[in-house]
Amino acid sequence: MIALHEDYVVDEQGNRKAVVVPMGEWRQIVEALEELDDVRAYDEVKRYPSDAVPFEQAVLELREENAE
Which is deepest, 49, 54, 55, 68, by most CB within 10 Å? Predict the structure, then answer.
C-alpha cells in the first residue's frame, strides 16, 4: 500500500476541492494504476477463449480499443 502524505485545497467554506501529493507518491500511484490496467487487460483476454496471443500484444490491442 502506498503511504500518502496529501494536502487538501479547500474553498472559502472549508470544503475540500483538490488534493496535492508529493511527486514521488504521485509516481507510485500512476505506476500502480498502470499495473492494475495491465492486470485488467489480462483478465479481459482470459475471459474470451481464442487462439493464443502473446500477453504484450493482447495488452496493446486492448489499450488501442480503449483509446477509441
Answer: 55
Torsion of CA 6, 23, 62, 43, to 10 degrees: -50
Examine residue 5 and state whether it is found in any structural domain, yes or no: no
For residue 2, tell me if it sits in a domain: no
Instruction: Say what the pTM is.
Output: 0.59
Q: What is the Cα–Cα distance from 45 to 62, expressed in whole angstroms? A: 8
pLDDT (tens digit, 9 = 90+) per residue, 29-49?
999 999 999 999 889 888 887
Domain count, the chain: 1
Contact 23, 33 (CB under 8 A): no
